[in-house]
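Supplementary Note 2. Why include the ligand at all?

Several targets in our set were suspected to adopt different conformations when bound, so apo predictions alone were not considered sufficient. For every target with a known small-molecule partner we therefore ran a joint prediction. The input for cytidine-5'-monophosphate is given below.
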Amino acid sequence: MNALTARCPAKINLGLKVLGRRSDGFHDLVTVFQAIDLWDTLRLETSERLELTCDDPSIPTGDDNLVLRAARLLRRGGAARFRLHKSIPSGGGLGGGSSNAAAAILLLERAWSLRISELAREAAAARLGSDVVFFLHGGTALGTGRGERIQPLGALEERPLVLGVPPFGLSTAEVFGRLHAPLTPPDAGVTVRRLFGKFAEGNDFGLATNDLESVAFVLRPELVPFRDGLVRSGAQPALLSGSGSSVFGLFRARDAADEAASRLSREFPSWRIVRTRTIAEGVRVEGPEAA
Ligand code: C5P
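The joint prediction is reproduced in token form.
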């Protein structure tokens, strides 16, 4: 029996602007997705039925899990056994579940020898969640629409970063739901896209902002001192990732990032501090290997 493994990276958002609420309940936004060196692993083995196990008991493994939804979307009644090893915290705005879903699509395409066009693959990914399409590409990419329209921005120079994961998560639906006045006028969409494109050209997101901070920082004011600690350590920018709850700081020099990580670990003992870096990849399928 052969097994396939996919490595599923996390993401951060190097800026996020909300343009307005749509009639389908989602929000139109402009964001820059950035893959980071923090990975889950999704392993696929042959099986008589469709099943999922996970080494993190806090992750629901029932029918609603995006991995199983991806499988049912590709082939109703298809069988496979998934084993998910989690390192990416959930509820952190890091796209872990979305990355797992993109990995499930790529694994099943191979395992079930499906012939799917890139367009159909992206449509399936978009049905599963707003962030899933990004993980098929990885690296750095502009996201528009509800986040599912992806335009790769080319490889940026690698940057060190410090990620702070607080001991609580935030619900994406709740954060968007509490956003009453879009902070960026809808007709500014083109300007924001251009601005984010310029940030990417110079690999300098120092002036980028995240509109969802206005909600997350009110729901959880304890996020603010961590962001301020990153700023004091020289991070540029220091931002909420997506709808939170994670806060990251981007650095130029590795030793500045190292110092910030050890200082913040001491100052915020209940937070998980991850010293990582930006990467130019997305989901990576490896194998087959003997199971
Ligand atoms: O697409 P996804 O399932 O990740 O979205 C989770 C929830 O976040 C949606 O049900 C919606 O309430 C909110 N959302 C939004 N606008 C977006 C993305 C997500 O309002 N662009």
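The mean pLDDT is 95. Residues 25-27, 29, 129-131, 146-147, 172-173, 176 surround cytidine-5'-monophosphate (CB under 6 Å). Comparable summaries for the other entries are listed in the accompanying table.
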